[in-house]
Design brief:
Blueprint lengths: L14 H4 L2 H17 L5 H17 L4 H8 L3 H4 L5 H4 L4 E7 L2 E6 H27 L2 H10 L4 H30 L15 H32 L16 H24 L1
Antiparallel strand pairs: 1-2
Helix pairs in contact: 2-7, 2-8, 2-11, 3-7, 3-11, 4-7, 8-9, 9-10
C-alpha cells in the first residue's frame, strides 16, 4: 500500500485502526471537548486524561515516540499564551526588565500557562491518533454520518486533495531550479548567488506557484463538472453500528463525563 509522505495515516492491524471511523471521530471530539472544559489547575484530571491518551497510543501500535514527536509541533503555538505569565495578577515569581518596562511574572500566571500547554499537548495527541489510524476518505464519510454540513465536508475533502497537487507543483519547481543551478563542487560553497538573489528567486517561485495552482484548480474543477460533480461527494453508506461499537462509544463518553465531573468536584 503506497502512502504519500504528507498523509498522516499509518496502516496497522491494531484494534484502534479496526474501530469504526464514526466511533473514533465522536470519541476524539468528545475527548478534546472534555480536555478543554476541565478547569485550570486540576492536575489530577490532567494525569487521568494523559493516561487515557497514552493507553490508546500503546493500543494503536503506532508507538508512543511516534505520537510524541508529532505532538511537539503544537508547542510553538502554545507560545501565544506566554504573555499570560506576566498579565495575570498573583504572587510575584520574578521580574523581567525590558528597557523602561518591568514585567512581573506571577505564580498563578505560570500555572495557567502550564495548564494551557498541557491541554493543548493532550488534545493534539488525540487528533494525531485519529488521523494516523483512520484514512482521510473514511473520516469524510464519518463526518457526513454524524451530520456535519455537506458543504463543510466538501471543502475539507477538496482542500485535502488539492494539498497534494500543490506539493507536486512545488517539487516540480524545485527540480527545475536544481536543474538550472550549477554546482561548483567546492566544500562549503553553495550554488547560486547572494542571499538577495536567492530571495528574489524564491519570490519568483512563489508567484509561479500561485499562477500554476490557480490554473490547475480551474482545470480540475472543469474536469469534475464534466464528470457530474454537483457540489457533493457521494460514497457508499456505512454499515450499521454493532453492539460492540455502541458499547465502546457509550463507554468512552461515560469515561469523559466521569473525568469532567470529578475535575469539577476537585475544584
Amino acid at each position: 500500500m503506497h502512502v504519500h509522505f504528507l498523509d498522516p495515516y499509518v496502516p496497522r492491524s491494531s484494534p484502534l485502526h479496526a474501530l469504526d471511523p464514526r466511533v473514533k471521530l465522536v470519541l476524539t471530539l468528545a475527548f478534546i471537548l472534555t480536555v478543554s472544559l476541565v478547569p485550570h489547575f486540576t492536575w489530577p484530571a490532567y494525569i487521568v486524561l494523559f493516561s487515557l491518551v497514552l493507553s490508546f497510543e500503546i493500543v494503536s501500535e503506532l508507538g508512543v515516540g511516534y505520537v510524541q514527536r508529532r505532538a511537539v509541533l503544537a508547542f510553538p503555538f502554545v507560545l501565544a499564551a506566554l504573555p499570560i505569565i506576566f498579565t495575570m495578577h498573583g504572587t510575584p515569581l520574578f521580574h523581567l526588565s525590558l528597557g523602561k518596562w518591568t514585567l512581573v511574572a506571577s505564580v498563578e500566571g505560570l500555572a495557567r500557562f502550564v495548564s494551557i500547554a498541557l491541554k493543548s499537548w493532550i488534545s493534539v495527541q488525540a487528533a494525531i491518533l485519529l488521523a494516523a489510524s483512520t484514512p482521510f476518505p473514511d473520516l469524510l464519510v464519518a463526518m457526513r454520518a454524524v451530520k456535519v454540513p455537506k458543504l463543510m465536508v466538501a471543502v475539507f475533502g477538496l482542500m485535502w486533495r488539492y494539498l497534494f497537487v500543490l506539493v507536486d507543483e512545488v517539487l516540480r519547481l524545485l527540480r527545475a531550479r536544481a536543474a538550472r543551478s550549477g554546482e561548483l563542487g567546492l566544500t562549503g560553497v553553495k550554488s547560486g548567488g547572494s542571499l538577495a538573489w536567492r530571495a528574489r528567486v524564491a519570490g519568483g517561485m512563489a508567484g509561479s506557484l500561485f499562477l500554476r495552482a490557480f490554473e490547475r484548480s480551474d482545470r480540475i474543477y472543469m474536469a469534475m463538472l464534466s464528470r457530474g460533480y454537483d457540489g457533493e461527494v457521494r460514497a457508499l453508506p456505512l454499515p450499521l453500528l454493532t453492539r460492540w461499537h455502541w458499547l465502546v462509544l457509550l463507554g468512552g463518553l461515560a469515561v469523559d463525563a466521569l473525568t469532567l465531573f470529578l475535575a469539577f468536584v476537585i475544584v
